[in-house]
Amino acid sequence: MKLLELRLQRGLTQKDLAKISGLSNHTIMNIEKSYYRPTTETISAVAKALEINPWDVDEFRAAVTNTTYQKPKWRE
Question: Which of 27, 35, 41, 56 has the fewest CB atoms inside 10 Å of its own CB, making it the most exposed?
């Protein structure tokens, strides 16, 4: 399941999730848009904040299995 879907199921904004996970809302946004490959520390912080198994999040599985991420157009 996508991080966006999980976050919305819990009624959280990006800012809310950022606050409870100790990350920036910019980081949450970039993960949701697949612009950023999260580190294990970031994955752990978000999974703990949402009380989920990290393997349930598509973006986290992709980061661990080295699936290619799309680059934002401004980075090309």
Answer: 41
Q: Which tokens in the block code for residue 54?
A: 């990290």
Residue 23 CA to residue 44 CA, distance in Å, equals: 11
Residues in the chain: 76
Q: Which one-letter amino acid corresponds to residue 20?
A: I
CB 42 within 8 A of CB 23: yes
DSSP character at residue 72: P
Reported as a single tens digit per residue, the pLDDT across 28-68 is 999 999 888 899 999 999 999 999 999 999 999 888 887 65
Q: How crowded is residue 68: how many other Cβ atoms within 10 Å of its Cβ?
A: 8
